[in-house]
From TrEMBL:
Pathway: Secondary metabolite metabolism; methylglyoxal degradation; (R)-lactate from methylglyoxal: step 2/2
Cofactor requirements of the protein: Zn(2+)
NCBIfam families: GSH_gloB
Protein name: Hydroxyacylglutathione hydrolase
Limits of the Metallo-beta-lactamase domain: 14-173
GN (gene name): gloB
Amino acid sequence: MSDCRIQAVLAFEDNYIWLIENQMTTIIIDPGSSQEVLAYLQKNQLTPSAILVTHHHDDHTGGVRDLLIQYKNCALYAHANHGFDDIPKVNLVDEGDHFAVGDICFQVWRTAGHTDSHLSYVTEIDQKTRVFCGDTLFSAGCGRVFTGTISQLFASMKRFNDMDEQTVFYPAHEYTVSNLKFAKSVALDEHQDAIKHATHIAITQRQNNQMTLPVSLAHERQINVFLHACDDNKAKQLANQHGLNDNSALAVFRWLREQKNHF
């Protein structure tokens, strides 16, 4: 698929609503607000074919119903726990499901942790794997645990880390600069130069009103301490560096998430 364009629409202060467009199809991921999406669609004379929802939080779902009122033929893909059971034509999806919107094919992954029914949508565009990961992975970070568990979030991040390094991730929030600040405070020495360099670039991008996203897995493996904790050897090094009694990967991951919660 070489004619696809992936565009972000900014909502609220830091939400990115991703759109995938080609000549046949327009797909909206996590429309937390309808106003900005409607303006974009009308400006570009686009009619959405489908809405994909990663999880039930209002900043990801708040615009869904308005968009479906405006575009009655638009399909909706969501988990049964996302609050759309009353919509007659909702397509309920979960781990292992596959579906196509036009000629764009998706695989559904349950990437729980942030919420217990969080989904990610995996597709191939321009010979690269693209992951619309909602609030599971952020650049240099990961989501906070709400209705999921830390063990689920750890497993989801490990699953991402096992993908090809050229995989591209499309997180739903612009948290990169603050995440890098935290990463610098806890990361191993071998990653400090990469974090410093990434911080300089991210700050410059934000000062110029540019996005820091999307990001490749190769990039995240250098700067994301939560991915570092998914590696048993690096987890042990982090535990030693910070004087942790339990050096298991899950325990180090949990400690990092707790530190970030209070950073």
